[in-house]
Each structure stands twice: as structure tokens, then as C-alpha cells.
């Protein structure tokens, strides 16, 4: 396994591989690898001739008061994990290499980026779509892998790839969870033990809503209300949003039908966590 830093070097390597007819799987991450990342990497290694893992904590997608500087960066450990899983290249550019002096281009997906994460984190998706466009340009993926955990992000990327007509297959893989249901996240390390316990209620509340839908509840307001009430039983938990939305457009639904996503974003102390479940409503 090779670690590549300069974007130009990554471009020449990926071009060469493409010319040799190899399929390239790309897994974009910010590092601090956990089981969620592992499952994406494993899928890529299975489905492609070569896998490129990108590790880049992208300053463009963090707001001024967010956790950019304290975001975990255990690069040596990440390299060990990647090697063990069969990754061929880690592309880990420095920020000055990816955004050299004079850089002034942004890539934006409009409507899908507006609500939910877009409202709570202004500029976040513009940062994501800009860096993913650059990472794709450097790595030339045949397939790219994203997690359902960041559902809106995955839809935004799918839209980007479709709109730009890039010949890349975007796969969205299921959320990997801890034993108590908490979605794995590099940010979970921020949680103190009492907060960690309370964070598990996110999944409990989502599952309860899912059960109520299966039992016949179709009223979105009733369901969001019950999710909110369950979350608010936790003293350290503040709700950012709870929403039932159309799984394609992310527009809110009032009466449930078709494929619906239940979206949750909360603050547990100073840590912001998101999660979601998809449900097909007959
Ligand atoms: P991140 O390093 O947090 O930017 O995540 C990199 C990729 O891993 C994104 O596509 C995430 O959606 C995905 N991912 C993060 N957590 C999980 C999880 N628990 N299960 C599945 N995929 C995940």
C-alpha cells in the first residue's frame, strides 16, 4: 500500500490505472477509521481491481465554530487498518496542496443542499461537493462508496455525479452501529460516558418511530412528536431537528407514503450527532 500526498501524483497514478483498464474503487473519508468506514472499504476491495482510500479533513466543510482543529487524526493507525483491508493507495493531500494559493472555485448542488444539515451548517455541503469533485478528479473512480449514516450527503453526491455526467457509480451502504444502536462516528470519541449512554436513545427513538409506522401510524407530526419526546428524556441532549421526509427529495411529508426517511440531528453536550432510518410505507 502506498500513501500519496501530491494531487498531481495521484492524478498520474489513477490515469495510468484507468488506461490499463483497471476498475478503481474510491472511499472518501476524513480518517479516524471505524467499522462504518471498514464496511465501505471492504465493499470497494471486493468490487474493484484497486481501492483508493482518501483521508482528508476538509477545512472547507467545517463552520468557523465547528470542530475542525480538534477532529481526531490518527493517521498511522488508519494506515494500518487500510493496509490490513487491502487498500492499494491512501490519497492524503495536505490542505495547501489541494487548495493552493489562488484557489477560488466552488461546486454547489443547490436545492438538495438547502434543508436540514444545510440549514444547520451553512456552507457545509458546498465544502463537501467541492472537495469530492477534486478528490474524484484526482482518483478517477469507477465506483465511489458513501454511508447512509450521512444520508443527505450521499444524496447530494449522487445528484452531483448525475448532473455532471461523471461515469462513476455511487454506492450508498447501510449504517454500521455499536451494539446499543448508536451509529458509529469518528465524533463518538468526544462523548463522556454519561453522554454516550444518552446518545443511544437516538437509535431507540428512531426504531420506535419505525415500529409505529409498521403498526399503521401515518401522521408525520405524531411521529416526530414521539421521537422528540423520547429524545428529550435525556438531560444532556438538545434537538437540532427531527423530520420525516421524502427519501428522494428530502422535502417534509405530512401523511406518510412511499419511501420515507426519518432524520435526526442532536447535540449531546458539545457534540453534534446525526442519524436516520429509511422506511417503505405501503
Ligand atoms: P467521514 O470520515 O465521517 O467523513 O465519513 C466517510 C464516509 O463514511 C462517509 O460516506 C460516511 O457516510 C461513511 N460513514 C460514516 N459513519 C458510518 C457508519 N456508521 N456506517 C456507514 N458508513 C459510515
In short:
With 282 residues, the protein is an alpha/beta fold.
How would you describe what is shown here?
The structure is a single chain. The chain is an alpha/beta fold and 282 residues long. It has two domains: 2-173, HUPs (Rossmann fold, 3-Layer(aba) Sandwich); 186-276, Pantoate-beta-alanine ligase, C-terminal domain (Pantoate--beta-alanine Ligase, Chain: A,domain 2), CATH 3.30.1300. Helix content is 40%, strand content 21%. It is built from ten helices and nine strands. The protein has helices at residues 7-19, 35-47, 75-85, 95-98, 111-114, 117-120, 124-139, 151-163, 193-214, 220-232; strands at residues 2-4, 24-29, 50-55, 89-91, 143-147, 169-173, 237-246, 258-268, 271-281. It has a six-stranded parallel beta sheet, sandwiched between helices. Strands 7-8-9 form a three-stranded antiparallel beta sheet, covered by helices on one side. Helix 7 (124-139) crosses helix 8 (151-163) and helix 9 runs antiparallel to helix 10 (220-232).
Amino acid at each position: 500500500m502506498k500513501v500519496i500526498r501530491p494531487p498531481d501524483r495521484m492524478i498520474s497514478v489513477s490515469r495510468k490505472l484507468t488506461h490499463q483498464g483497471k476498475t478503481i474503487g474510491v472511499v472518501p473519508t476524513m480518517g479516524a477509521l471505524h467499522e462504518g468506514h471498514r464496511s465501505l472499504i471492504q465493499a470497494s476491495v471486493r468490487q474493484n481491481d484497486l481501492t483508493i482510500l482518501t483521508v482528508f479533513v476538509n477545512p472547507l466543510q467545517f463552520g468557523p465554530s465547528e470542530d475542525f482543529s480538534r477532529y481526531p487524526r490518527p493517521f498511522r493507525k488508519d494506515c494500518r487498518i487500510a493496509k490490513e483491508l487491502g487498500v492499494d493507495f491512501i490519497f492524503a493531500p495536505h490542505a495547501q496542496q489541494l487548495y493552493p494559493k489562488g484557489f477560488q472555485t466552488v461546486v454547489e448542488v443547490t436545492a438538495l443542499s438547502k434543508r436540514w444539515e444545510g440549514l444547520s451548517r451553512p456552507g457545509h455541503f458546498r465544502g463537501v461537493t467541492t472537495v469530492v469533485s477534486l478528490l474524484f478528479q484526482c482518483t478517477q473512480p469507477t465506483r465511489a462508496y458513501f454511508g447512509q449514516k450521512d444520508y443527505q450527503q450521499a444524496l447530494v453526491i449522487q445528484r452531483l455525479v448525475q448532473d455532471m455526467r461523471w461515469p462513476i457509480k455511487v454506492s450508498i451502504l447501510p449504517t454500521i452501529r455499536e451494539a446499543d444502536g448508536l451509529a458509529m462516528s469518528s465524533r463518538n470519541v468526544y462523548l463522556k460516558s454519561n453522554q454516550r449512554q444518552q446518545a443511544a436513545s437516538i437509535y431507540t427513538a428512531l426504531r420506535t418511530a419505525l415500529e409505529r409506522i409498521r403498526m399503521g401510524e401515518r401522521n408525520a407530526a405524531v411521529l416526530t412528536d414521539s421521537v422528540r419526546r423520547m429524545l428529550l428524556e435525556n438531560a444532556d441532549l438538545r434537538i437540532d431537528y427531527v423530520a420525516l421526509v421524502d427519501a428522494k427529495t428530502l422535502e417534509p411529508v405530512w401523511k406518510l407514503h412511499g419511501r420515507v426517511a426519518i432524520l435526526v440531528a442532536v447535540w449531546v453536550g458539545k457534540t453534534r450527532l446525526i442519524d436516520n432510518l429509511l422506511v417503505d410505507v405501503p
